[in-house]
Amino acid sequence: MEEKELQALVHLLDDPDQLIAEEIENKLLSLGPDIIPSLEEYWESAFDPYIQERLEKIIHAIQFDQTKSELLVWKMSNSFNLLEGLLIINSYQYPSYNNNLIRITIEELKREIWMELRYEMTPYEKVSLMNYVLFEKFGLSGNTNDYHNPQNSFIGRVLESKKGNPLTLSCIYSIVAQKLDIPIFGINLPKHFILSYLAENQTEDHLLFYLNAFNKGQVMQKADVISFLKQLNLPLSKEFMMPCDNVTILKRVLRNLVTAYEQNESASKKQEVEILFKLLED
Description:
Blueprint: H1 3-11, H2 18-30, H3 36-45, H4 49-78, H5 82-93, H6 99-116, H7 123-137, E1 141-142, H8 155-161, E2 163-164, H9 166-179, E3 184-187, E4 194-198, E5 207-212, E6 218-220, H10 222-231, H11 238-241, H12 246-263, H13 267-281
Parallel strand pairs: 1-2
Antiparallel strand pairs: 3-4, 4-5, 5-6
Helix pairs in contact: 2-4, 3-4, 4-5, 4-13, 5-12, 6-7, 6-9, 12-13
């Protein structure tokens, strides 16, 4: 669309006829993400708070539609890539965030570990190295002071602040590990997401031990997990003791956000996240 046509549409947003204003809004929504930079420029130059509010609403609606589309595509064709799924969730809250910065940070962490990694290392030695680089050198830690803050669920903010919840810290840990061919995968343990280390060249049933990323990669044994499940009166099922898929992980990220927004009384955010969750559930 020509810039002049777009400008004319924006000027009609304050038309006193509500039907015309809504028709213009729907037309702008149909044009998709390509018009966002122009809408942002119009927002900056607008003196009318009403027009600014309408533009904000349209920009957010376009971005949310894009998030939904990207999440569906990820689920259908790219769910093997956990990082890309987390980047979509990050873009939901921070649409202007440069996700390449996240990729670069992950690659830098991978490189630091790779430099010290040796073929003859035992699984425990590999975990010890990863723990040193991620938690001691880089400085990741559990956000115990503000556990339910929504920021703990956005990978970009976690890598910036170095603080996160068990799930996001576990995701970062497993993503870096798998890039190094270290078989560490997520465990969808109720109340506290953890990790597992698989025996090399074995099936998922061959677990060597578990890891607690929220506690700086603390090694846990099967008996610890069994004891935890018994305390919660839950069955010792594979669902809670064996690695889960990436769709399950992203659904848990979204559930955490629903809880966080509920506690923060952000009703609109909670509703949107519930829509994203349903896309993964259907």
